[in-house]
Amino acid sequence: MSETSGQRPVGVIGAGSFGTAIANLLAYNADVLLYSRNIELVDTINSTREHLGIHLSASVQATNDLQQLARECNLLFPIVPSTNFRKMMHNLGPHLRPYHMLIHGTKGFDIRGISDSNPGGGKLKRENVSTMSEVIRQESVVVRVGCLSGPNLASEIMEGQPTATLIASPFDEVIHAGKMVLDSKHFHVFGSHEILGAELAGALKNVIALGSGILKGKGLGKNLQAMLITRGLTEMVHFGKAMGASGSAFFGTAGIGDLVATATSKRSRNFTFGFRLGQGESMEDISDSMPELAEGVRTLQITRQLADYYNLRVPITEMLHRVVFEGFDIDRALEYLMTYPYDVDVDFL
Ligand SMILES: NC(=O)C1=CN([C@@H]2O[C@H](COP(=O)(O)OP(=O)(O)OC[C@H]3O[C@@H](n4cnc5c(N)ncnc54)[C@H](OP(=O)(O)O)[C@@H]3O)[C@@H](O)[C@H]2O)C=CC1
Ligand SMILES: O=C(CO)COP(=O)(O)O
């Protein structure tokens, strides 16, 4: 039993890579209810205490019951892919009350009023795009929301490697509650009030990780990778400012911290997706043979449209979209970027 077993358990929604990693981290400080929509998986976790190749703490109990989760837990961590987030919230919403606090760990966007199977196929506007905290507010009575974002590759966390994260929320009590249950010698938790910036940074860095993977797959070196990360960060800041975030979130743990981790690690799914593209595989072949989630592919479709909507000058986003979705030649895209009339080095201060 955990040290705080007299207290309410903490809920995690989504027993994928990151939800499972977070459940085990929470278990250092609290009892944990881990929700999966898959009843067989729930039985397996509870009987074997093994999942995704790791041992789950005795403080983690799996459940298939959203009502039980909402009844027993005041603090919940929803961590499901962005494309399924609204549906999950739609199911959970009726069980939630204003006293609940939700801190999500999802790095992507929700879109409404436009086909989710082809988010780039229409004229996307800001009102079609929601961050996950916005979805939580739209689909429930919950007000106290937060976001968990940082260099948090699930496979490293599952191995017990240390890292840091950011809990961003306009509410001090959300940051405090999140720190109380997540902070440990393995996981340092920073706090911030800049929730929109943290959410945007988490989603947008996945696109740059795709690009970085492409360069690596092409056999290119660190100089160019560093330039892609640098100019990619600039594009992230331009998106962030256009969408109403301050630039500061992009220079902290959830920004440059996560960007470096994701855009340089072979353990990142987004980097790996790009790497395989760079090696010459087609988008279709990679999608068919890669069961793991690469959020950046969907995010790229959305940000390409948002760039038009905000009239942003984001050549990396533009070229990545052409390479990934239009079969544009990678060498030509590189040539375009190398001869692009970038004038000012740092143009967002
Ligand atoms: N993996 C990582 O290193 C990190 C991931 N993230 C972010 O976390 C999010 C989830 O990623 P990750 O865990 O890796 O993804 P996975 O693909 O490993 O797992 C996603 C999980 O979500 C579950 N799920 C999907 N839809 C629902 C739903 N409607 N209700 C309940 N559960 C649902 C899936 O269940 P089922 O098996 O039944 O389909 C699956 O268990 C993404 O946005 C990602 O960017 C953030 C930081 C690190
Ligand atoms: O967000 C992540 C690390 O912080 C996970 O990145 P991938 O989804 O690319 O594996």
Automatic annotation (TrEMBL):
Name the Pfam families for this protein.
Answer: NAD_Gly3P_dh_C, NAD_Gly3P_dh_N
Task: Name the positions where substrate binds.
Answer: K107, R269, N270
GO BP term, example:
glycerol-3-phosphate catabolic process
Q: For binding sn-glycerol 3-phosphate, which residues are annotated in this chain's numbering?
A: K107, G150, K205, D258, S268, R269, N270
- Could you say which protein family the record assigns here? Belongs to the NAD-dependent glycerol-3-phosphate dehydrogenase family.
Q: Which gene encodes it?
A: gpsA
> What's its top-level EC category?
oxidoreductase
Q: Entry's Gene3D superfamilies? A: N-(1-d-carboxylethyl)-l-norvaline Dehydrogenase, domain 2 (1.10.1040.10), NAD(P)-binding Rossmann-like Domain (3.40.50.720)
Its protein name is Glycerol-3-phosphate dehydrogenase [NAD(P)+]
Q: Which domain of life is it from?
A: Bacteria
Catalytic center residues:
K205
